[in-house]
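[Q] Does anyone have a clean structure-token version of this?
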Amino acid sequence: MRIVLVGPPGAGKGTQAAFLAKNLSIPHISTGDLFRANISQGTALGKQAKAFMDAGDLVPDEVTIAMAKDRMEQPDAVSGFLLDGFPRNVSQAEALDTMLKAAGMKLDAVLDLEVEEDEVVKRIAGRRICRNDSSHVFHVAYAQPKTEGVCDKCGGELYQRGDDSEATVRNRLEVYHTQTEPIIDYYKAQGLLVTIPALGEVADVTKRAMDALNK
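[A] Here you go.
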């Protein structure tokens, strides 16, 4: 299957993408991973992307599209893939359609993880990270430490990252509404959009998505 996963920041796209890709035996292709891999390997595209990122600019569509095209042409993606973070706007969606058509392929579904904006803010702004180990993550509502402000695993100080503040989260949501949300209508017009309520346990959301794909 060839699937695109969309949804606002905090919807759980990365988590769901990993589970869905495993269940469907297809590679999970995320924009973030593409950037990191190309930059660490020093590819021509990675060097271009790094120059823009170092300047604090968004990586242009043509660079992102070229990275995605290269990844989708790898042997493990021949029988399908799950795209996470690409396409991020209508121009990229149109480019993806063109690429797939040229290869005699098409998308099977676009899964839209639906979460209310206030829930997104609650999820992200409530995160607390351990200063000693950033993999130790807690939450003021959903995964509270035994002692407030102290990591259960190593005793390190818990803090809120600057990009997890409510103001920053709402700004990220505004960017999502402006740039990415229009692709929902784009894919709805093609009859590909499947909306999945993303509230509840991770396993429950995965089951909803798999049930929708099976239909």
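[Q] Thanks! Anything notable?
[A] The chain has nine helices and eight strands.
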